[in-house]
Specification:
The chain is mostly helical. 69% of the residues lie in helices and 3% in strands. The two termini are 15 Å apart. About 5% of the residues have low confidence.
């Protein structure tokens, strides 16, 4: 089953509303009173919509096998819930939900029981609910459906800005005014204190973990314990950004050596047209560091298991994403036993687990110390120069790959100046040298 843009929008809103109903009903049964459990004022829980859209995008290949579909839905939804929980905690310095009391939980964000329920939800979505919803959606006149979806999108955007303004005011109360931009502060003033206070009260009632007064005390304690300014201390933006570049470079080198040793072929493993950088490895280093940073002192076995699951899920998502966006497959493991759609295989998932242990136990501590020794001002400048370079590099690489696919499918000269420039600078020979394993797919 193929999903277009508007069907995905429809699924997002339907499942977001259904999730809000479930969350609110559960809270009402437990606390015996109505609580809006959403981050937003609208009756929507976007995490359910995001998960359902992720199912529709990444799980169609698994729909023919119930076991793989359950496992894929379980892993994918757990990943989304973990990332969402970390983002919300980064904003509030508090967990919006906490599974610490559950068995087989990870940092309180996810636990085996709810991950299994997500897996069942994935099977129901792909096998029964999505076909039914798409069929019902087809009964609505196309023009009316598009108008409704865009109106809902506009309301969602306004609601998100309102909720973000409420968050901004809460952060002001936490004494972190320096982290809020002037533009967001102006939006907060325009919306009015009464509106944002109402949103804040709703959030605190729905999520007791967000008690503001306690957060104020904790923020003051953190400020009193702050050390003199140090570049990239902890696990923040600057350190993760530099780790991305280091991981991308080391990953490219490791893959190149691995291919030469195992296949006797010296080939490019870069993801971009300028420089030996593997984006998959760079993002993987950031992902493993951000998620496992608090658990870096855990046993090697623990980190290996988590790294194996996370690495496999991450590589699968990257493979589907590049195929959806560029129409190309950059790796194919169909010839390796225990593979899943040629996108991942058990052996390389184990490699991700080993890489997680080596990274967190051996490489990361040394790199972290070296990065923190960089003087603050030069460190900030160098980081942003690298960010601008990589954004430009990825943009040019994306355009060059899109034009390469177009040349080999349409087989017509470009009629635009940009297309002609790409043809001149990045002909097929150069693209095939940079991406020797890239395969164009329908």
């Amino acid at each position: 089953m193929e999903y277009g843009f508007y069907p995905l929008m429809g699924l997002f809103f339907v499942y977001s509303f259904a999730g809000w109903v479930l969350e609110t009903a559960q809270a009402a049964l437990v606390q015996r009173k109505f609580l809006n459990r959403g981050f937003l004022n609208l009756p929507l829980c976007p995490i359910y919509g995001v998960v359902s859209v992720s199912f529709a995008l990444f799980l169609p290949e698994l729909a023919h096998t119930w076991g793989f579909l359950f496992l894929g839905g379980m892993i994918l939804s757990t990943f989304v819930e973990l990332v969402s929980g970390k983002l919300l905690e980064a904003i509030f310095h508090r967990k919006w939900w906490d599974y610490s009391g559950q068995k087989f939980q990870f940092e309180g964000y996810v636990c085996l029981k709810y991950s299994a329920l997500w897996g069942v939800f994935g099977v129901l979505c792909m096998k029964f609910l999505n076909p039914l919803l798409l069929e019902l959606g087809g009964l609505v006149p196309p023009l009316l459906a598009k108008v409704i979806l865009w109106v809902l999108t506009g309301l969602l955007a306004v609601d998100f800005i309102t909720s973000a303004a409420a968050v901004a005011q809460m952060k002001v109360r936490l004494g972190r005014m320096e982290e809020i931009s002037d533009s967001l502060g102006q939006i907060t003033d325009r919306l009015g204190n009464a509106l944002t206070r109402r949103v804040q009260r709703r959030m605190v009632r729905a999520y007791p973990n967000l008690q503001v007064e306690q957060l104020v005390r904790e923020a003051r304690a953190r400020r009193q314990q702050e050390k003199p300014r140090q570049f990239a201390a902890g696990c923040g933006f600057y350190k993760l950004t530099l780790l991305f570049f280091i991981g991308a470079f080391l990953g490219d080198i490791v893959e190149t050596i691995f291919c030469y040793v195992t296949a006797g072929i010296l080939m490019s493993r870069s993801s971009v047209v300028y420089g030996p950088f593997s984006i998959v490895w760079g993002l993987g280093a950031v992902l493993l560091t951000a998620i496992l940073y608090r658990w870096r002192d855990k046993s090697d076995r623990y980190i290996f298991c988590v790294g194996t699951v996370l690495g496999g899920a991450y590589e699968y998502v990257c493979s589907v994403f590049t195929e959806l966006v560029f129409g190309t497959v950059f790796w194919d493991y169909s010839h390796i036993p225990f593979n899943l759609g040629g996108r991942i295989n058990l052996l390389y998932c184990f490699f991700w687990g080993i890489a997680a242990v080596v990274w967190l136990k051996m490489i990361y501590p040394r790199l972290s110390d070296l990065i923190e020794k960089i003087p603050p001002r030069p460190g900030v400048v160098v980081t942003w120069v690298l960010v601008v370079f990589m954004i430009f590099n990825m943009a040019v690489s994306s355009l060059a790959m899109a034009r390469y696919v177009e040349r080999n499918t349409v087989a017509q000269p470009s009629q635009t100046a940009l297309g002609q420039l790409l043809d001149d600078r990045f002909p097929d020979e150069r693209m095939e040298r940079i991406y020797p394993n890239a395969k164009i797919v329908e």
